[in-house]
Amino acid sequence: MNMKSRIQEMVDRFHKRMAEDPEAKEEVMSLKKTVNIDLGTESYSMRLEDAEIKEFKEGLLDGADILLKSTPENMAALIDGSLRPTKAYITKKIIIKGNIQDVLKLKHLF
Fold first, then answer.
1. Each residue of 72-93: pLDDT tens digit?
2. Closest CA to 58 of 15, 2, 1
């Protein structure tokens, strides 16, 4: 499975969680952010608005609010749960740039 499909699965899980968990939905409802995912050999972007991920596509957005930088292997491990987000961040397997409050709310993606 390619990374675009794996990230799409993550987006689908996010939407399912928002539909099933009113508290999680409330926590991210006010966020209006753009997110870039730079995996070196491939890149993706999306927009988070109204507790929904919109416009997931290949390529990076100019001036995104949040940048996730990693490798395809580490991103795959994050998505399948074999690498926890906190451990990935501490061990620098993922680099996150953006407002810390917004970044913390991204935990709902994983």
1. 999 999 888 899 888 998 999 9
2. 2
Please report which helix (H) or strand (E) contains residue 86, including its range.
helix 85-90
Distance CA 46, CA 20 (A): 22
Which residue has tokens 């810390």?
100
Q: Residue holding tokens 């997110």?
A: 35
Place of tokens 């596509």: 57
- Domain count across the chain: 1
Q: What's the whole-model pTM score?
A: 0.87
Single-letter amino acid code for the residue at 11: V
- Structural domain for 47, as ranges: 3-109
CA atoms within 13 Å, Cβ hemisphere of 21: 14
**What CATH number is attached to the domain comprising 87?**
3.30.1050.10
Separation of alpha carbons 95 and 22, rounded Å? 29
Q: Is 15 helix (H, G, I), strand (E, B) or coil?
A: helix
* Total residue count of the chain as it appears in this document: 110
